[in-house]
Design a protein that fits this description.
Rossmann fold, globular, seven-stranded parallel sheet, single chain
Length: about 200
């Protein structure tokens, strides 16, 4: 007989990991941090979602699968053939790849909106794009601090956003603590939603 959480995987919290496909600027141990982040997502009984790309997201997916978890990717390509041959993107370490056909900008929107919260590592402009979508949507955002500039860049964007400080953006250097803090925010929001709509 299936365990209750196996029958209801759609109820698991979905945590997206955003980060650079090319990590040469990220410093030492960035990929190990990504792998650790993916593993922590699974250890906390959540589903990992990525942009189905190389670099930081791929290593997060590796960590998730090595921890025997579920890993979902949203691709900018329109098919597996396009994903592999045109975009030169991996198919490993993902249980399911959704081929959006919308390129990176359109993929980013669907990726963010498929998640309950976003976790951000070392990134580039695409990561900033995913951050701004999540920030505009008021999604919980966890920023993993490391030997890279992304956390400082995000802090600067927030400071210059001219928005009241009502958005949940959490910074931490430890993947485990960051995942735990973000899960607490997601669970709190889900509890509030259940109170507002008890019959759903």
């Amino acid at each position: 007989m299936l365990e209750n959480n196996t029958k209801h995987n759609h109820l698991k919290i979905k945590l997206g990991v955003s980060g650079a496909a090319e990590t040469g600027h990220c410093g030492l141990h960035a990929l190990e941090k990504a792998k650790g982040l993916g593993a922590e997502v699974v250890k906390h009984d959540c589903v990992l979602v990525t942009g189905a790309t190389t670099g930081f997201p791929l290593w997060a997916a590796m960590g998730a699968k090595e921890a025997n978890g579920i890993s979902i990717g949203l691709s900018p390509a329109q098919s597996e053939e396009d994903h592999v041959n045109t975009w030169r993107l991996p198919v490993d370490y993902m249980d399911l790849i959704i081929y959006t056909g919308f390129g990176f900008p359109g993929r980013d929107l669907l990726f963010v909106r498929s998640c309950d919260a976003i976790l951000i590592g070392c990134g580039r402009i695409g990561t900033i794009h995913e951050f701004t979508i999540a920030f505009e949507d008021k999604k919980p955002i966890g920023v993993l601090e490391g030997p890279w500039a992304m956390a400082d860049e995000i802090k600067e964007i927030i400071a210059k956003s001219n928005r009241p400080d009502d958005d949940v953006v959490i910074f931490d250097t430890d993947p485990k603590r960051l995942v735990e803090k973000i899960i607490a925010v997601v669970q709190s929001r889900k509890a509030d939603l259940d109170k507002e709509h008890p019959n759903i």
